[in-house]
Every structure is written in C-alpha cells, then in structure tokens.
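Checklist before submission:
- one chain only
- standard amino acids only
- sequence pasted in full

Submission:
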Amino acid sequence: MQELRAKKGFICDMDGVIYHGNRLLPGAKEFVAWLKKEDKRFLFLTNSSERSPRELQQKLARLGIEVAPEHFYTSALATASFLASQKPNGSAYVIGEAGLTNALDDAGISMNDVNPDFVVVGEARSYSMDTVQRAVNLVLTGAKLIGTNPDLTGPIEQGVVPATGALIAPIELATGSKAYFVGKPNPLIMRHGLRRLGCNREETAIIGDRMDTDIVAGIESEIDTVLVLTGVTTTEGMKRFAYAPHYVLENVGKIVEE
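Returned file contents:
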C-alpha cells in the first residue's frame, strides 16, 4: 500500500467508485481529501458521455465533494477529440445527451442527419426505434459507426441501466458493421488521461470497479490497477477474467487508511 500511496497521479472512475446514482460511496470523501492534502495529480475519467465536466463537478458538489472542472474527463470529450483528428470539421448523427453533443460541437463537429461522416452513439434517454432506424440507414450509406464506450450496463440506485454497448448493438447487428469504441478500455483515452495528468504510466494508478473496462484498460496501458468492490465487480466475479488487478480493496477510502 505504501507503493500505491506514493504514486504521483491517480486516474479514477466515478460510477461505482465515488458514487452510486445519487449516493456517495464509503471512503470517497476521505480519498478526495487525501488527494488534495498530499498534492496528488488526479483525474476523474468516466466512460459516461451524458454529462459535461461542469455537470460532473456540480454533481460531486451536491454530494459534498468540491473538485474543479479540470479534474474531469469523459468518453464524450475523448470521442470528440478522436473524430476531430479523423475528419476535421466533419459531421455526425448523434444518439446521446448534451454532454456528448456539446463536446462534439466544441471540437468543430457539426450535427447532420442527412449525409454525416459518422453515426455516434452514447448513453441516451432519447433512444427510440426512430433513432435506431435512422442510424442504421446512415451507416448503410457510408457513415462510420462510433460508440463513446463499450459498457453494456451502468449502475443506478435501483440496479442497472442499459449503456452504450447495449444501445449500439442493434445498429451493429442490422448493418453488419462493428462500432469503434473510444472510451475505456481503448488505450487512446488512457493516453489522453496521462497527458492531462502530466504523469507517466509508472507514476500513475487507475482505480475502477469494472474488470472489463477500468482494470483491463490499466493492464493494456501498463498502469497499476486498483479494483474497488463498491460497483459491479465482486470477488467471485473477478474469477471469470484471465487477468487480475494489482490491488483489490473494499472501497476507495482503504487507500488512505493506515
């Protein structure tokens, strides 16, 4: 644990690590206070594309944790950066919320439902058969299919909700196209995170609750991994995977307990 505490930078997931729905998880407040006290570099890196950094900051503030907006990075921001690098000033048909559409707009990607360069799917309350039908036909006529993240489900207080991986599956099946996912475990978003931290991989640890995104992202990026058991993964569920995290903790607050 001394080696873990000595890390200069921490990349931390949010859902299932810091909060669950609108409930703060055990140890979260103590962990963030420790990060500030020890002058650590830290970044909340979330696969969720619904909210902007400002909205995430406000959510944490409502839960009693004050963090500046620059400490947040989302799959929506990573997706916008990727599309801008692939097709500067390109266009996209978007199934997603304001966090995604605003990130794309800020990156110079315009919204277009006639002949877009990309079809982009994130978490979406506006998801319907009409939006799926439009997306399918746009992909069949040449638009590239992009997902903000591959998560099949996301945690809520009442259980789980279908996430991007589940929402994009009908479009993949109907078109025969495989989506390109920008969020974790894609090493691309991990490199973005390290650049924002200003740390190298040896100086950094990633903390998450999912073996299939957070932990494998760290392993494939050669970053030390911390699995917390406050989210979707249990100690029994860990056994299904061919890889293991460097640390397994009851909650994120255990990092700072003596």
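Reviewer check: The chain is about 35% helix and 20% strand.
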